[in-house]
Amino acid sequence: METRELVNKFWGILINPTIGWVKHNPDNIRFRDLFSPFFIITMIVMFVARLVGKTLTYLDVTDFKYIILYSIVHLIIDLLFFLIIVLTLNALLPYFKIVKSKAKVAVLIYVSLLPFYISMILVNLFPSLFFIGLISLYSFFVLYWGIRYFLRPAKQDSTILFTIVSLLIVGVYLILNFALVYPFFDFVF
């Protein structure tokens, strides 16, 4: 599938998730199609935004090598976070009578996390605009409709699956940050 076509599908889903998941159903996307151009570019942009933002904010109180190390650790956390969520949700799908598909789950998680990634890029570049982080709450809205119309569980299971995935996303992100970032980098509050 072409990159332009995928961008149009993802944009349609983000603009109106209730119709976007049905109308722009990205069923024929392979895991490699998503991972190769989109996810890697997103991670590079997040790394650069974090490096630039933390350098501008903390260079007067810490050494540059710690800022680079912090950005690299956060890049590893972002990669682990995505992979853990995708693999865990893929393992949970048979319990809800849904066929396992890493590509389908990766598309759901990536598109749902795009508002989160965008808000983190903006917050890292402009730390004083921390309220922009509220954009990341839109991720849960996109995720809910994605679970409902893209994964298509039974009606009674869609809310349960959404709750499990939401708790999984928040929990894994917090655990990875509290375990790998905050004990070692004291210049970050």
What would you say this structure looks like, in words?
This protein is mostly helical and 189 residues long. It has one domain (3-180). It is built from 7 helices and no strands. Helix 3 (31-58) runs parallel beside helix 5 (102-125). It is globular and about 55 Å long. It starts with a helix and ends in a 9-residue tail after the last helix.
Poorly predicted sequence stretches spanning 5 or more consecutive residues: none
> Largest beta sheet, briefly?
none
Summed up, the helix count is: 7
Strand content: under 5%
DSSP strand tally? 0
Shape: globular
Mean pLDDT across the residues is 89
Q: What class would the helix/strand composition place it in?
A: mainly alpha
Helix content: over 70%
Helix-strand pattern, N to C?
HHHHHHH
Q: Whole-number radius of gyration?
A: 17 Å
Topology, please?
Elements: H1 3-15, H2 17-23, H3 31-58, H4 64-92, H5 102-125, H6 138-151, H7 155-180
Helix pairs in contact: 1-2, 2-6, 3-4, 3-5, 4-5, 4-7, 5-6, 6-7
Summarize the structure.
With 189 residues, this protein is an all-alpha fold. The protein contains 7 helices and no strands.
Descriptive terms for the model:
mainly alpha, 75% helix, globular, single chain, 189 residues
